[in-house]
């Protein structure tokens, strides 16, 4: 019975080299993989959509120039109407490009908040120093509670 060769073995044999396989020291959690893939895909999609929108805007601007030439030469109201619609379309495409930037910022912000732990650098405490120290040092507050409950008395000999 023949041993079925793996892809690495076939490549090693075909290229007359030896491939080293490296194991990851720590497996990546599934949710981290999803975030990483999502980040890469969203970045690629962003650049593709941005490129397409910029191309559409440039094409629209060229078309506006041509339509305005036709409109001024022919003096036809329909040509001016078409030029106005084209100008509105290009303006809407520009607005969509700005919206794309806003959405990408939101996506990045979500990715950052999923990957970060929040740290408070500045905080304000309203209260006395004694109360603050009691909060920080729980042992001190326990001792204080014990000593507050002690009643100091003198023993009087009744004889």
> Can you identify the CATH class of the domain at 26-115?
Mainly Alpha
Strand content: under 5%
Low-confidence stretches: none
**CATH homology superfamily name of the domain at 26-115:** ESAT-6-like
Number of helices: 5
Classify the secondary structure makeup into a structural class: mainly alpha
Biggest sheet features:
none
Number of strands: 0
Note the gap between the termini. 109 Å
User: Would you tell me which CATH topology of the domain at 26-115 applies?
Assistant: Helix Hairpins
Shape: elongated
Which value, in Å, is the CA radius of gyration?
37 Å
**Proportion of residues in helical segments:** over 70%
Task: Give, in order, the helices and strands.
Answer: HHHHH
Mean pLDDT: 77
The assigned CATH architecture of the domain at 26-115 is Orthogonal Bundle
Oligomer: single chain
Question: What report would you give on this structure?
Answer:
The structure is a single chain. With 159 residues, the chain is mainly alpha-helical. It has a domain at 26-115: Orthogonal Bundle (Helix Hairpins). It contains 5 helices and no strands. The longest helix is centred in the N-terminal third of the chain and has 45 residues, at 30-74. The protein starts with 6 loop residues before the first helix and ends in an 11-residue tail after the last helix. The model has no long low-confidence stretch (mean pLDDT 77).
